[in-house]
Amino acid sequence: MKCYNKTVALSVKKLQLEEFLETHTPTKIHLKAARIEPSSASEFQDEAINLDDWPILLFLKGIGFDTVSFYSNSQSALERWTARLSQYELIFIADPENLAVEECIWNEKDDTGNLLIECHLPTPSPHQQQKKQRVDITPGGHVPPLEAPLGIDDDAALRFVDEIEKQTPQETLLRTHLILREFESDAKHKDPFVWASLIADIIAIALESRWVEKAVQIAKDFDQSLKLVWTKSERALRLFSAYDPKPSELRNWSEVFQSCSSVDLVWYLDSQLSTTAGPQILKLMNYRAQTEPELLIEICFQEKPNVQRILLPWLIAHWKLKHYPNVFHHLKTSLEQNESEEIVQLWIVAALRSSAEHSFQDFLQLIPKRKWFCVLDKSKLVFQKLLLKVFTENPSHDVLPFMKKAKHLFSGEIADQAEKLLRNLKERS
Amino acid sequence: MSRARIVKDICTIFTCEFQDFEAEVSTLEKIKKHDEYTYLHCLNVARLSVALGKRFGFNSGMLIDLGWAALLHDIGKLRVPLNVLNKAKKFTSEELVVMKSHPVEALTAFAETQTVTLERLRRLSAAFEHHQRYDLKGYPIVQKKLTLHPFSRIVAVADTFDAMTTDRIYQRRVLPDVALKIMAQGFGSIFDPTVLQAFITSMGAYPVGSLVRLSDESLAVVIKYGKQSSLDRPQIYYVEVRSQRISDLMAFENKNLRILRSEFPEDHHIDIPALLEQAERIQGDSATK
Predict the structure, then answer these.
(1) Structure letter (DSSP) for residue B15
(2) Would you state the torsion angle of the CA atoms of residues A91, A93, A94, A97, taken in this order, to the nearest 10 degrees?
(3) Cβ of A195 under 8 Å from any chain B Cβ?
(4) How far is B178 from chain A (nearest CA, A)?
(5) Are residues B43 and B170 in the same domain?
(6) Is B85 found in the same domain as B132?
(7) How far apart are CA A363 and CA A331, in angstroms?
(8) B70 and B12 co-located in one domain
(9) pLDDT digits (tens, 9 = 90+) for A237-247
């Protein structure tokens, strides 16, 4: 390894080249043959050199140069030239494809344009000229085997293997999080859906690795991009299924789903409850109902009956007097539009929860006494039936006065049920 | 057909349960369709990386992970337009930006082609980091510096070596021994010193298959490094038809003989694989006797 560790050797040899050129200029160095060709004025003979000692010359040979002519012994020119070529060499080593060889300034000139150092390319052979049209590569064609038993540092090798074995999911996620951050600022034409899916998958992996904190962090960093993922149920379901939070983790865990609107959540609740994501969808909905009921109530008022049907059961405990006008309005609308009995019943409960007092007054309008000369509209009949059902399921003491007042409004089969309910209520009181 | 060929190519490097790597094989198929050169380059980088992993004593699981990391290290090139990827002339500054974006684009290409799992993320590190350099001064530039994943450090060495030693339309390849010496300038800065040291000592100063000019002006092919060989004194096979024979530069009678340099076989119309085969046959014969 000694001969490859040249950090120190380099500077010594560079000095030697400078010193050599000081006394032997002009000089021509043949890179291919690694020989110095004496000029006519030189006293020395054609001399073999070891290019390993002069890395810049080795680099020039690698690039394909054949000869380097030194016309001047100017130290500053040599230093400038060496510094520039060292930069090229670093680019070439780090990424050979990114060194624009044609762009590089290989020769060194003085202020007046006179050549001080000149690099010569060989005249291409017919074989090489042909090759320029096409390059054939076969797999493994030029890859040498790595079987030289020259030994590697055992301790270093062990440490290296150990490093791989100790790579934790956390490290991988940390690394990936950095990549995501970099990518977000760098990639100009990323497909937003692919990007959102990628972020979702990485958050899911963080959750699967039980690293909720990291999942939240990534979700917060990319909340805007993540919004798109909720339209792709496959990715979203993976996110939901990834981790089953304990009650104490709910708050933290729920932040992962911050960008998932409650309307979207309702859709998942409605359609994906039987999947592996189901329990977590329920947990999130429950958490939202507990922590942000007003938002859900707002959505409930604005959305269509299919969303209301899902949301209303979660809101039972959160209705307040201020909601009553809206609730009653929705109850009336659902009756007018012949919505399902389930929704009507849920609105009746909502109305009673938000204000029992107002409800009892307003319900009387909705159950007018049946007259012999007209048929009661179907929605009114449904309302009467459901109202009794609600009262039967939730018999509270304030229902009794209402029932006493409304008893005469019921007729036929429903009147019998009302009578029965009233009896029960009286017995209970 | 293409898939079968890919599986066959991979099997020359490492074996695995391919049904567990369907997505990876499909991705490689896409790379092959996109650009044959990139595909072959990925194979070469994987071949070198896995060979190096074996020298480090990796277990089979690690070797499979490393193999896939190397095979997919240029996955981002799927998103580099072909006119840029195969441009024979120098890149414009815009094209250079596109070209340099491939480690970052790896992420999108990855998500487009594979379901993301923890194992796949681990393998993705090399795709993102293989140009970042050991000292993290390469690209892409990241705000928070994190030590490169060990796979990335191996792939970086293999990638550079293969890129240097492969002919391009606009640039003749660098001879393997010269490439190693040039790469040695990046010891500890561009490359992990442990990895580069292992790479060089596993390959020898003149890698097997190098055509070398000896100090007596004869031409020979490096055929092997024996247990006693030093870095620059391998076993060789003389090329001249009349004096074809195997010789060990460590042998006492060769003490005054040394390798001057390597040369391009095509400049001498020499078929290296054929010579290596001949030498192997001779060695086999003498072992039998």
Answers:
(1) -
(2) 70
(3) yes
(4) 6
(5) yes
(6) yes
(7) 10
(8) yes
(9) 999 999 999 99
d(CA A32, CA A52): 13
pLDDT above 50: residue A403: yes
- pLDDT at A373 > cutoff 70: no
Convert the pLDDT of each residue in B207-216 to its tens digit: 999 999 999 9
Instruction: Identify the pLDDT of residue A100.
Output: 77
Question: By the 8 A CB rule, do B35 and B77 touch?
Answer: yes
Would you call A187 and B108 a contact, using CB atoms and an 8 Å cutoff? Answer: yes
Binary contact (B172, A128; C-beta < 8 A): yes
Cβ–Cβ below 8 Å for B202 and A178? no
List pLDDT tens digits, range B106-126: 877 877 777 788 988 888 889
Chain B residues whose beta carbon lies within 8 Å of the beta carbon of residue A32: 261, 263
Residue A427 has pLDDT above 50, yes or no: yes
Of B62, B198, B226, the CB nearest to A157: B198
Q: Are A209 and A170 in contact (CB under 8 A)?
A: yes
pLDDT value at residue A1: 37
Token digits for A85?
């070529």
Beta-strand relationship, B246-248 and B211-214: unpaired
Q: How far is A126 from chain B (nearest CA, A)?
A: 10
DSSP structure class, residue B138: S
Query: Which tokens belong to B206?
Result: 């003149």
Q: For B8, phi and psi rounded to 5 degrees?
A: -65, -45
Q: Are residues B220 and B157 in the same domain?
A: no
Helix (H) or strand (E) holding A119: strand A115-120
B151 & B186 share domain = yes
CATH of the domain at B199: 1.10.3210.10
* Pair B225, B273 in one domain: yes
Round to whole Å and give the CA distance between A316 and A352: 10
Phi-psi region of A338 (alpha: psi -120 to 50; beta: other; left: phi over 0): left
Range with the poorest average pLDDT among A59-63, A79-83, B136-140, B215-219? B136-140
Q: Does A194 touch chain B (CB under 8 A)?
A: yes
**Of B175, B203, B231, the domain-final residue:** B203
> Do the Cβ atoms of B115 and A98 come within 8 Å?
no
Q: Given a cut of 80, is residue B156 above it in pLDDT?
A: yes
Task: Please tell me the total count of domains within chain B.
Answer: 2
Mapped onto helix, strand or coil, the DSSP state of residue A70 is strand
Q: Model confidence at B262, in pLDDT bands (50, 70, 90)? A: very high
Residue B237 forms contact with A (CB below 8 Å): no
Q: Sketch the domain layout of chain A as residue ranges.
A: 2-123, 165-291, 297-429
Q: Using CA atoms in the order A343, A344, A345, A347, what is the torsion angle rounded to 10 degrees? A: 90
Residue B26 sits in the same domain as residue B153: yes
**What is the domain range of residue B260?**
211-288
> Of B203, B222, B249, which marks where a domain is finished?
B203
B198 with B239, same domain?
no
The predicted-structure confidence for A301-354, as pLDDT tens digits, reads as follows 998 898 899 899 989 999 999 999 999 999 999 988 988 999 999 999 999 999
Q: Does B173 touch chain A (CB under 8 A)?
A: yes
Nearest neighbour of B202 by CB, restricted to A100, A152, A209:
A152
ipTM of the predicted structure? Answer: 0.87
* Class of residue A37 by CB neighbours under 10 A (exposed 0-12, middle 13-18, buried 19+): middle
